[in-house]
Amino acid sequence: MSASPLFQPGTQRATGGAELAQPQPHNRQALRTVLARDVDEHAHNLTNWEQRYDQLTCGAFEGVLDEWQSAGLQIFREGTSRAIRQSCRVWPDAFWFGIEARPAGMRINGRQVGADVVMTRPGGCEFELVTPDRHEIYGIVVQRDALLATAARLGCEPDWRRLGAAELLNVEHQMLDACRRHIAGLLRLAGGVHGNDGNAALQLRQEAVLVSLLALLDGGEIEAEAGASFLRRRRIVSEARAYAMAQQENPVTVP
User: Fold this and answer.
1) Rounded distance, CA 147 to CA 118, Å?
2) 195: domain CATH number?
3) For residue 8, is it within any domain?
């Protein structure tokens, strides 16, 4: 991955598997930036996620994570230099929402992600992402009761039942871009503010992210759920991965 605004001086830098810093507990509000050069270690850098990453393309790996966490809320930007298959699970009683920084043809549970789409999965539920080389994604994880309370306060009425089973949400282009800008603005501000004035500004930015997200949920169109074929596909991929890992000392061939 080439030089990027994500690679800031003074961040936690990890250069090898044994030397990588493990995620540290957050204060009530905190920004952390972690750079990794090992795909397995990078998979463990997101706080309170269960993840496993498999690198799909050759070459040295580099990953970067900017993560903001407040009470019941996690907002992050993740960049990866190589194509990856990701097995993910967010903490229970929460919602995850994923937005590509730029449409790049990633997949969720085998389904293509279009240009004006928000990905979503509920907490405690395993899902699969496949991302290409040089990929960047924004993520928002919100505790369920906090999201419902904010929606009620703002008068938003998403279909929570369908949303809990959804994977893809088609949304309006300009509203999606606005949400991206609010996330980027929060992460940028969080990296350089101090004192009470800075905290107040961060609260406003955090509110702007949630308001823009709820606007997407309120006005978006949930795509039909994927068929049960994903379960079969996931089982096949899992069995193939387990076989490959068990045969690391021998060349694996396909008859």
Assistant:
1) 16
2) 2.60.120.10
3) no
Question: Considering its fold, how many domains does the chain have in total?
Answer: 1
Distance between CA atoms of 84 and 219, rounded to whole angstroms?
31
Give per-residue pLDDT as tens, 190-206: 987 766 677 888 999 99
- Separation of alpha carbons 185 and 72, rounded Å: 20
Longest alpha-carbon distance in the chain: 65
Q: Which helix or strand (DSSP H or E) is residue 195 part of?
A: helix 195-219
Residue 109 lies in a domain: yes
**DSSP reduced 3-state for 121:** strand
> Between the CA of residue 140 and those of 2, 68, 114, 180, what are the distances in Å?
25, 10, 18, 11
* Contact of 214 with 150, CB cutoff 8 Å: yes
Q: What's the 3-state SS for 149-185?
A: HHHHHHCCCCCHHHHCCCCEEECCHHHHHHHHHHHHH
Where is 108: in which H helix or E strand? strand 107-108
Pairing of strands 12-13, 30-36: parallel
Q: What is the mean pLDDT of the chain?
A: 84
Torsion of CA 206, 207, 209, 215, to 10 degrees: 170
**Residue numbers of the domain that contains 115:** 29-225
Backbone φ and ψ for 129, nearest 5 degrees, come out as -120, 140
**Nearest-angstrom CA–CA distance, 160 and 148:** 9
pLDDT at 67 over 80: yes
pTM of the model: 0.81
Q: Is 241 among the domain residues?
A: no
Rounded CA gap, 168 and 205, in Å? 25
Residue 103 lies in a domain: yes
